[in-house]
Specification:
The complex is a heterodimer of chains A (14) and B (277). Chain A is mainly β. Chain A is built from no helices and two strands. Chain B is mainly beta and 277 residues long. Chain B is built from four helices and 22 strands. A nine-stranded antiparallel beta sheet of chain B has the order 6-2-3-4-21-20-19-11-17. A five-stranded antiparallel beta sheet of chain B has the order 5-1-7-8-9. In chain B, strands 14-13-12-18 form a four-stranded antiparallel beta sheet. In chain B, helix 1 runs antiparallel to helix 2 and helix 3 packs antiparallel against helix 4. Chain B starts with a strand and ends with a strand. The relative contact order of chain B is 0.18. About 8% of the residues of chain B have low confidence. The chains are: A mainly beta (14), B mainly beta (277).
């Protein structure tokens, strides 16, 4: 099963 | 007061066309450094970062930092009213709630101005760390567009595998599978190609995609990652901004797809990978 990661999990909120 | 005048209005039109389908509403940050935007698509899978440096504008004035929230579809509607060779000026008051787009034709005998209402957009700003990527691929933006388009007729995702000698794009779907391998071309091919012509001796021109893939690879570590083609195809709407595209990849990190905007800055797209669970 292939799942799509989210961009916000890589870059932290400023 | 914010005022920015760009002689080649087509650049701004192209930038908008490249991001308007990915992002609905976005805050443009106007500072002394330039005109910038950072926004995620509605699914929070990808992120676009645009930078148009103040030095790239014909005239640029920004007395204090201004955030202008705009609906990109509406902004694109307005910019479509400018001809490609028009000069475009954007203007906004510090506390105003409108932005004015002024278009002037090259003869300066037709001047239009369009006012667009600004919006308050509540959005989170993400910090993008400087990253040393394991693989950097520079290739013809037309070729990259062609590959993404072709593969999306077969499958929904593409696996990009970079080795020191090649970059391989693989997809599969109900009807079958496809592999496209672009070999790294020899050193210097990415830069410029010297062509001898009988009349004017040596002439330097940029290599065209029809002459080859022009693939340049800078590799620390071989990388293989999988991405949704839908997003990559959307990023390819920026193709006309630059002859080359730069892809940066590292294990388990978003890919960075960058198009340079001549003398002005860049538009960068970040796309989170798909992982097998």
């Amino acid at each position: 099963y292939v799942s799509q990661l989210h961009i916000s999990s890589f870059f932290r909120t400023e | 007061m914010f005022e920015a005048r760009i002689l080649q209005g087509s650049i701004l039109k192209k930038v908008l066309e490249s991001i308007k389908d990915l992002v609905t509403d976005a805050n443009f940050e106007c500072t002394a450094n330039g005109f910038a935007l950072q926004a995620m698509d509605s699914s929070h899978v990808s992120l676009v970062a645009l930078m148009l440096r103040s030095t790239g504008f014909d005239h640029y004035r920004c007395d204090r930092d201004v955030t202008m929230g705009m609906n990109l579809l509406n902004m694109s509607k307005m910019l479509k009213c400018a001809d490609n060779d028009d000069t475009i000026t954007m203007k906004a008051d510090d506390a105003g709630d409108v932005v004015t787009f002024m278009f002037e034709n090259p003869k300066a005998d037709k001047i239009s101005d369009f006012q667009m209402k600004l919006m308050d957009i509540d959005t989170e700003h993400l910090g993008i760390p400087d990253t040393e990527y394991e693989a950097t691929v520079k290739m013809s933006s037309n070729e990259f567009q062609r590959i993404c388009r072709d593969l999306s007729s077969i499958g929904d995702t593409v696996t990009i595998a970079v080795t020191k000698d090649s970059v391989k794009f693989t997809t599969s779907g109900d009807i079958g599978e496809a592999n496209i391998t672009c070999r790294r071309t020899s050193d210097g091919d990415m830069k410029e190609e010297k062509v001898k012509t009988e009349e004017d001796g040596e002439k330097v021109h940029n290599t065209k995609s029809s002459e080859g893939q022009n693939v340049d690879i800078d590799l620390q570590e071989p990388v293989t990652l999988t991405f949704a083609l839908r997003y990559l195809n959307s990023f390819c709407k920026a193709t006309s901004l630059c002859e080359n595209v730069r892809l940066q990849l590292s294990k388990e990190l978003p890919v960075v797809v960058q198009y340079l905007i001549e003398d002005m800055g860049y538009v960068r797209f970040y796309l989170a990978p798909k992982i097998e669970e």
